[in-house]
Write a structure and sequence with these properties.
Blueprint: H1 20-31, H2 42-49, H3 56-87, H4 91-118, H5 122-126, H6 128-131, H7 133-146, H8 159-180, H9 182-193, H10 198-228, H11 235-259, H12 269-286, H13 301-307, E1 310-313, E2 318-321
Antiparallel strand pairs: 1-2
């Protein structure tokens, strides 16, 4: 049975497994389970309240990233639950989507936890998608890409409609979760490397590991659809997707300069922008599209954040080896 457009799917019958990769992503997600309240933010609170512990540039960077992620995670969850799940007709892939939806809820809860703990104004944070132009531009771009699949009458049947559905998957898995999140991840982990806002930084590490799995699942889903229906993968459609990803890179670069205009110790907006180009090439290659930038990774330490199998030992307050292993092997 195909992964979309199957009229024979029995949602109660997950065995035999047709797509082992979907089952493996589900199991890796379960092994990566965490909740934000397990991470202490006492030092974060002390630094946030201190008049000297953080520069204005660092405070701006923190607020911008909390503002972007707080709404981006909700957008992603809505897309999974209201659009993608409805059109996937394979039970093990649907099982993973349920797991991903739970993880998006955890991520949303993380930003509630951060705002409550630091005593931030929720109206300011959760309205940044309207008040900060670079955040608004990214959110609007993805919403516009995927608006058609929210039509209750939309169907994935036929080449044109299947292309629209794949466009949605590229919009959320490749662009939103695979590109738009990553300058923000790099900024927050750069702060953590300086021993600043370590609690938030650890939460971003866990989110990034979840997102690596989401991205891997999304790319496998896209590749499976195009393998089962190669007629959708026309030269024009490929060129359209490349152009969308290139536009996304420009929006993410603009956000990098907006959120961190003065740079941090040892790192600046140019490096964040180069990193976005580097990961965009990886995303393009992963779904069979030509690389566009040829940029080397300017932040090799970012790979450690996803490549190393670690979890927080919350009783010993140190990092220990983690059961997921190689499931998180790419950024």
């Amino acid at each position: 049975m195909p992964i979309i457009n199957s009229s024979k799917t029995d949602p109660n019958k997950i065995l035999p497994i047709q797509y082992p990769w979907a089952r493996e992503h589900y199991k890796a997600g379960v092994a990566n389970n965490w909740v934000p309240e397990e991470i202490s933010m006492q030092r974060d609170v002390e630094q946030w309240k201190s008049p000297t512990a953080l520069s204005e540039t660092e405070r701006r960077l923190i607020l911008w990233n909390l503002g972007f992620f707080s709404t981006a995670e909700s957008l992603t969850a809505n897309n999974i639950v209201l659009a993608v799940y409805h059109h996937i007709t394979n039970p093990e892939a649907r099982q993973y989507l349920l797991r991903q939806a739970f993880e998006e809820a955890i991520h949303t809860d993380t930003f509630i936890y951060c705002c409550d703990t630091l005593g931030l104004d929720p109206d300011e944070i959760y309205n940044m998608y309207n008040t900060i132009p670079s955040i608004h531009a990214k959110d609007s771009f993805v919403v516009d890409l995927t608006r058609v699949v929210f039509d209750p009458h939309f169907s994935t049947e036929g080449t044109a409609n299947a292309q629209k559905f794949v466009r949605d998957l590229v919009g959320f898995y490749v662009i939103m979760e695979g590109i738009f999140f990553y300058a923000g991840f790099a900024m927050m982990l750069a702060l953590k490397r300086q021993n600043k806002m370590v609690g938030i930084g650890e939460q971003f590490e866990f989110i990034m590991r979840d997102e690596s799995l989401h991205l891997a699942f999304g790319c496998d889903l896209i590749n499976t659809i195009r393998a089962e229906d190669p007629g959708i993968w026309t030269a024009d459609f490929q060129a359209e997707l490349v152009a969308l990803i290139r536009r996304a890179v420009e929006l993410e670069k603009a956000y990098a300069y907006d959120a961190c205009p003065q740079g941090l110790l040892g790192i600046n907006a140019d490096q964040f922008s180069q990193y976005v180009e580097y990961i965009a090439d990886r995303r393009l290659d992963r779904i069979g599209l030509p690389k566009q930038y040829g940029t080397r990774n300017p932040l090799p330490w970012m790979s450690q954040a996803t490549d190393l199998a670690k979890e927080k030992n919350f009783f010993e307050t140190r990092v220990t080896e983690y059961q997921v292993g190689a499931a998180l092997s790419w950024d």
